[in-house]
Amino acid sequence: MGRTFVAVGLWLAMAGNGVSAESAKDALEVFGLVGTWSADCSKDLTKEAGSRKIYDVPAVGAPGFSEIIRLNTGVTSKFKGEIQEATRITEDKIRLIYKGSEITFSNGAKPGASEFDPVQTILEKVGQKVRVLDWRHADGSQTLIENGMISAKYPVLLIEKCLD
């Protein structure tokens, strides 16, 4: 009986420490997020307003997240960062924590220091598409998207996987 308690105690200790936990790479792949996503994959971002989100899983190193946004004004921003955590919450939801490493603007603007702070986002599958359900600084200091609404006013667009 003493051995059973020791074995159960060891199993609980290992499970509690995430020994059997899914890696960020695995979570991204199983969720189906790896690739390029957009509300309209046909748009040419060198000429039209739009955006692309790119989730990549390199053979070596941490998973990455990049985003390109072109505004109606023609200004383009490029974000590149590292996904520090990826956890599947349910079959249809995944939580990511990522941190920016490089942010540039085509008009020469400089990013603010807080734009490099870790961000927590929750993505939700809606059929074959995905939407951002929640976006906030990981420390809770700023929330932009909550319950799929931007600043509690505008619904977040669904994005689809592009054929690259």
Describe this structure in words.
With 164 residues, this protein is mostly beta strands. Helix content is 14%, strand content 45%. The chain has two helices and eleven strands, in the order H-H-E-E-E-E-E-E-E-E-E-E-E. It has helices at residues 2-16, 24-31, and strands spanning 35-38, 50-56, 64-70, 76-90, 93-105, 119-126, 129-137, 143-146, 149-150, 154-155, 160-161. It has an eleven-stranded antiparallel beta sheet with strand order 10-9-8-7-6-5-4-3-2-1-11. A hairpin with a 2-residue loop joins strand 8 (143-146) and strand 9. It starts with a helix and ends with a strand. The model is unreliable at 1-20 (pLDDT under 50).
What features would you highlight for this structure?
mainly beta; 164 residues; disordered N terminus; 14% helix
